[in-house]
Write a structure and sequence with these properties.
The structure holds 2 protein chains of 2 kinds.
Chain A: E1 6-14, E2 17-25, E3 28-33, H1 39-49
Antiparallel strand pairs in A: 1-2, 2-3
Chain B: E1 8-9, E2 18-19, E3 28-29, E4 54-56, E5 70-71, E6 78-86, E7 89-97, E8 102-110, E9 121-129, E10 133-141, E11 146-156, E12 161-167, E13 180-188, E14 194-204, H1 216-223, E15 227-230, E16 238-244, E17 249-255, E18 265-270, E19 278-282, E20 285-289, E21 292-298, E22 301-307, E23 316-321, E24 328-333
Antiparallel strand pairs in B: 1-2, 2-3, 4-6, 5-8, 6-7, 7-14, 8-13, 9-12, 9-14, 10-11, 10-13, 15-24, 16-17, 16-23, 17-22, 18-24, 19-20, 19-23, 21-22
Classes of the chains: A alpha+beta, B mainly beta.
């Protein structure tokens, strides 16, 4: 199984709605869409459900 | 015009089975029914390397050099594109150079290949190594079912050689939404062992047909369904045109060259290196910036908001990509 080292995750909003997650994955900061077919999003949610990661609210 | 009417064509010794089906009149061999576009592997000839031609894996199952090919679970192995003269084809190969002993391989996830549902499939590849090693070959469904596993497959030697395996595991079970994972590699015995892999083909049928060569442009377009990069390297200049919103944000976006598999993740980097700075231009002056404020993607395109403090009024804004100074690059990742 693919393992990603996710060290931070925070929602970003567009017009008041969560639209993506800014995450640092394997040392690279990226914008991750809220798409279950996206492998980064799928792994973020897997780690959240496993209690290994918390997504911070948008500012 | 003369016409030859036959039902079957056989070799002189009576073997062979080239047939002409009555219902279609199309000549096929029963051993390899998939003629035409048949290779399910993308970048099997190791031509496309949008991320760069070499990388050293730092973790498990990473994309880093040749498109569509992941590293195995071994850290510290290097995956690089090298020249290869295989079977008269002067092309490219993927070279794995080990950071230690043990099984190491390249992995490709083939996206839901419905064309081989309920069919026998054959995997073929060409390989050579720095010495004689047993090979590691594993083909599985993404839901977990193994189609083929041999952790001590036929030895690879120092000369190019073609190998193949045929699998019947899909014949009786619906593929459904599964992808198929293909793992090919070797069992290294020491640091700096090398394994070269190219001309990988996965196809319907019970025999390995000659490798289906595709042009670089065709292969690049296929790869871009999963990964695209813009302005990554010096000399790949282009410009994103946008506007200032009157505050501290410059807005811009782009349409992808190829519609992607899913909404992609976005990574940007400045000055052609991760974490560098770049300039956002507004009102004729430049603002050095090191971050975007947000990015939104869909399979067909993306828009991005960049920090830009220069100017306080609405105005045009732009960012230059792919130049050596203050340029930025963008990566979009929808890999499996």
């Amino acid at each position: 199984m693919e393992q990603m080292n996710i060290t931070s995750a925070k929602y970003t909003q567009f017009e008041g709605t969560n639209s993506s997650i800014t995450a640092t994955i394997d040392g690279i900061t990226m914008s991750v869409p809220l798409d279950p077919a996206n492998r980064h999003y799928a792994e973020i949610m897997r780690q959240v459900e496993a209690g290994e990661l918390t997504i911070q609210d948008a500012e | 015009m003369s016409q030859l009417n036959v039902d079957t064509i056989k070799k002189a010794d009576g073997t062979g089975n080239l047939s002409v089906p009555a219902e279609t009149g199309t000549v096929v061999t029963t051993a390899s029914p998939s003629l035409g576009r048949r290779n399910l592997i993308i970048n099997g000839a190791m031509q496309v390397a949008q991320r760069g031609t070499s990388f050293t894996a730092t973790g498990s199952y990473q994309y880093g050099s040749l498109d569509r090919w992941k590293s195995s679970s071994s850290s510290d192995d290097t995956y690089a594109q090298v020249a290869a003269d295989v079977d008269g084809y002067g092309g490219k190969a993927l070279r794995i150079t080990t950071g230690g002993s043990g099984s190491t391989y390249a992995l490709q996830v083939v996206e839901n290949p419905v064309s081989v549902n309920k069919k026998t499939i054959t995997l073929s590849w060409w390989a050579k190594a720095s010495a004689t090693f047993s090979q590691y070959v594993y083909v599985k469904r993404s839901s977990g079912g193994s189609l083929y596993l041999d952790t001590s497959f036929t030895n690879v030697t120092t000369s190019w050689q073609q190998f193949s395996v045929t699998m019947s595991g899909l014949e009786t079970t619906e593929l459904g939404s599964d992808n198929i994972e293909v793992h090919i590699g070797f069992n290294a015995t020491a640091t700096s062992d090398t394994y070269d892999l190219t001309m990988v083909q996965l196809e319907a049928g019970s025999v390995a047909t000659p490798f289906e060569h595709r042009s670089y442009g065709e292969e690049l377009a296929l790869c871009e369904r999963y990964f695209q990069t813009y302005g990554r390297t010096n000399g790949s200049e282009s410009r994103l045109i946008g506007s200032k919103n009157g505050g501290t944000t410059a807005l811009t976006g782009l349409h992808f060259r190829t519609v992607m598999r899913a909404s992609p993740s976005l990574n940007f980097f400045g000055s052609n290196t991760d974490g560098g700075s770049f300039n956002t231009y507004c009102n004729g002056s430049a603002t050095a910036s090191t971050s975007w404020t947000s990015g939104y993607t869909a399979p067909h395109g993306a828009f991005m908001n960049f920090n830009s403090t220069t100017g306080s009024t609405d105005s045009a804004a732009w960012l230059d990509m792919g130049i050596s100074t203050n340029g930025i690059g963008l990566e979009f990742d929808a890999e499996l």
